[in-house]
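Researcher: Checking consistency across runs. Here is Putative methyltransferase type 11 again:
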Amino acid sequence: MKDYKEISKKSFNEDAEKLNLEESSEENKFFMKRESYDIVQEEVKKENFDDFLDIGCGIGNSIELLLKEFPESHFIGLDIAEKMIELAKKKKLSPEHTEFIIGDAENLPFDGHSPHQSFDVVICKETFHHFPHPEKFFTEVYRVLKPNGRFIIFDFATTEISRWIKNNITNSFSSHGICHHYNIQEVTDLYKNFNFEILRAENVTDDRMIVSGRKIIKEQTK
């Protein structure tokens, strides 16, 4: 079986080696479409938050943007690719309010209750399709979210025909560690299965979708 995590890490490390933050223009710095950042930022701003987690943070662009508007909040960026984290740290963002760490989205290194170990908002932007065990990922996100916390996924969207071709043919040859291309129904089903209230679920561009949900506390059985 393919080791999707190792393939993804290798691919993103190679991407990081191509980036020079000192020489990059603002346009190149946001190498994934800048408009996608704006969509996610607006969704994040719907929530009052003190603690924020970006899973698959890359070089920390989302945190850099949010920090300008929320300088007193605490931000953590997590990525499996160590070279992406190296670049994020080179930005020298506020050390009191930001952390960038290497980690696995399916095994989050947070206890879920200590200060800065649980979160009001968790985002996963353009990364979810790389995770080989989505149920494990959702379990981990639910665990580290505070009660009523918001969880936002922003990911690829495509036609059903194209999605079938990718999932059944081309993903097998991907050198980027792509596991599965989702449609909105698949993602919202995961949210509901893991006790999230759906707040938003829609295609927002020709090739991107956003799903946002709120953690609902599971009722204790007697």
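Researcher: Does this match what you'd expect to see?
Model: One thing to look at in this run: Residues 4-17 form the longest helix (14 residues).
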